[in-house]
TrEMBL record:
Keywords: Membrane, Transmembrane, Transmembrane helix. It comes from Pseudonocardia charpentierae. Residues 21-152 form the DUF4396 domain. This is DUF4396 domain-containing protein. InterPro entries: DUF4396 (IPR025509). The chain crosses the membrane at residues 54-77, 123-143.
Length: 162
């Protein structure tokens, strides 16, 4: 059974199978941008400040959500949507995608021996972080494809991209 998504002045049937992988990858790349900014900033701040790994991970997750939502809200606000409504749209559009990315990339960072303690000048830290974000992207693309096919996730924001 397919759902319907409103794209401005017309309605199109959607479903998981009808969503091109390129659309899902594009939505995931958008999400990855905000997540990566927050994740890297959190890891850098936590590592430079000598925070415990748990505190560094929490900081990274919080900043990933903040930057992820902020990037989505930026475009929605430009479309003339009020702040409160733009926040609701960003929450609906990005929460699952960001959560999946954060679970994956932080699990990888914590599972690579010594990565969290390697320090900012270590290739091990940066290689593990890059690998973690890449794997998070790959895992999240099908999640976003499934959500878009059901009129959720990035599909919620689509009407404001024009």
């Amino acid at each position: 059974m397919s759902s319907e998504t409103n794209h401005g002045h017309h309605t199109e049937p959607t479903g998981y199978a009808s969503v091109p992988w390129s659309v899902a990858a594009s939505a995931t790349l958008h999400c990855l941008t905000g997540c990566a900014i927050g994740e890297v900033l959190g890891m850098v701040i936590g590592t430079a400040a000598g925070l415990h790994n748990a505190a560094t991970v929490v900081l990274s997750i919080v900043l990933a959500f903040v930057f992820g939502y902020a990037l989505t809200m930026r475009g929605v606000l430009r479309a003339g949507v009020r702040f409160g409504d733009a926040l609701k749209i960003a929450l609906a559009a990005d929460t699952v995608s960001i959560a999946v990315m954060e679970i994956i990339d932080n699990a990888i960072m914590l599972s690579v021996p010594g990565a969290m303690d390697a320090g900012l000048t270590s290739w091990q830290f940066w290689a593990a972080l890059a690998f973690a974000l890449a794997v998070a992207f790959v895992v999240t693309v099908p999640v976003n494809r499934w959500m878009i096919g059901r009129g959720r996730g990035h599909a919620v924001v689509h009407a404001y991209h024009h």
